Amino acid sequence: MKTPLERAAPLLLLVVTVLLWQAICSGFEVSEFIFPSPWRIAVATWEQRGLILGHAWHTFWVTMLGFALAIVVGVLLGFLMGSSRLAYDAMYPLMTGFNALPKAAFVPILVVWFGIGVGPAVLTAFLISFFPIMVNIATGLATLEPELEDVLRVLGAKRRDVLLKIGLPRSLPYFYASLKVAITLAFVGTTVSEMTASNEGIGYLLISAGSSMQMGLAFSGLVVVGLMAMAMYELFAVIEKRTTAWAHRGAHNR
Length: 254
Known about the structure:
Order of helices and strands: HHHHHHHHHHH
Structural class: mainly alpha
Largest sheet: none
Distance between the termini: 6 Å
């Protein structure tokens, strides 16, 4: 079990960081047009709360659409790669090369294909977030112990039974780990696309605020994106602990 200090550590670190940030901005009289203080960001957030909430909601549901698509495609491709050595050897190098491509470079192409709006943002979120899911599912299936597989086959289990009844449940910790990484990437993808090819969302708000020198509002948008990503990360962490407690017995006993 975690001690009270361990549970409070993230909050304490956040408070210390914010206080230090405020002290630097106040002590050195840093202009808010260059680097706004936490207080100035909080004031801008409150004053523009309606505007920020509207753009934040747009970014959130667009990200969720792209992320849902990433889960479906990532799980399917991961299952294919993890269940077949040939598919793994053939697809993994190509997928790794594709993942290395800067996803921001796809936005102008997606705009030509789908126009300015939701389409490019959803697809950018998908493109940037499906790879971790695919790799983790494939790894979880491909690393199934040969001895265990041999025993199950002796008992009459077919390859499909081994993958579905043993491989997939065993891959759940890998799957949840990939979700926690992929959701943060999905928000990055949506925001980047909105900065280039949208008239809504936090990305558009960042560009608009920056061009009008409203740096407090711009930083507020960044904070909101971070909070949404953190909330989704924690949601998946809670679901993971409730559904894969067997994989965390050692961690809970420390």
